[in-house]
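Preliminary data (for renewal application), nicotinamide-adenine-dinucleotide complex.
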Amino acid sequence: LPASAKCVSSLINTGVRTATRQSSSKPKVALLGASGGIGQPLGLLLKQDPHIANLALYDLVGTPGVAADLSHIDSNCRVKAYTGAKELTACVEGADVVVIPAGVPRKPGMTRDDLFNTNAGIVRDLIEVVAKSAPKAMIAIITNPVNSTVPIAVEVMKNNGVDAKKRVFGVTTLDVVRAQAFVSELKGTDAAKTVVPVIGGHAGITIIPVLSQAEPSLKFSEDEIKKLTPRIQDAGTEVVNAKAGAGSATLSMALAGARFANFLVRAVKGEKIEACSFVASDAVKGVEYFSTKVQIGQSGVEKVLGVGKVTAFEQGLIDAAVPQLQKEIAKGVKFIKG
Ligand code: NAD
Ligand code: LMR
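Predicted structure:
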């Protein structure tokens, strides 16, 4: 492997089990919102991913500069810029994976749901074009509020005659990345080998770290669990407050987004990937979407692997998350269905 590929591998290996069946196809990834705080560093990481042959960058502004800059990096992936609504169709045409960080971020004092009024319409309009020009693509949604934008995407695809329930993924990888960072720091384990599932959704109490399933198997005191759980749930707000009005997590999100996009391109190429993601799911009664570990293959989600064995405390977190998830999912569905 060239040095850059080794570097990317080290970023993307944590927490994934794979059954390898490599094919020679080299997927195209379309990145929508490519000039933004997440978009730029995410583009940088995707450009170095040896699994990606073509990277199509779309935004309302700035993509020619970002693409010119990235295209000077000596990796094999080809980068092309698309700017403004007229170029969106050409950007997504033929894409195997569409990654969407387009939309506004939080400022201190806001919830993710406060972004709904702006971001719901952005995701709806982008997915309208994806449904027509890349109906078979895997779609990874980063734009908040994820608990609502994922159902929005599924409903828009459905309106266009496309059943994409198994191919629309809410990116919750940052919650997993954070849990693994905080746990490895606390316990002194190797971060690259520390695996912590985070299930539920991607907002406040819907973010549910399952510390009892951490690998390597670790013992947490009650006090540690009571401190770690809200820290992981509120980690996004920790960054929003530290950035003091300049946006939310961008660098850690770029890593998380690149890691999840890598999972999807490898699935497209024939690997079986296991990862947590917010998807259409029957894992928990009463909610149509839920994040658990899922098995991803060429056709999208092949198996929902479910919640697994949890402690009474973790079951309490799941029960507490359900009403908020129901509300936020219904809000997204209603936005499209009226
Ligand atoms: P940003 O404002 O820095 O960048 C957003 C980009 O989207 C801008 O370049 C903007 O021009 C572009 N954009 C806006 N409307 C668009 C449209 N219609 N088509 C294409 N591009 C459009 O914001 P950011 O920090 O990159 O955050 C983006 C989103 O990601 C926010 O909604 C934020 O809440 C979310 N986010 C999610 C997670 C997660 O874990 N899922 C983590 C961090 C941030
Ligand atoms: C995060 O978890 O960092 C993102 O959802 C951004 C935010 O608003 O917190």
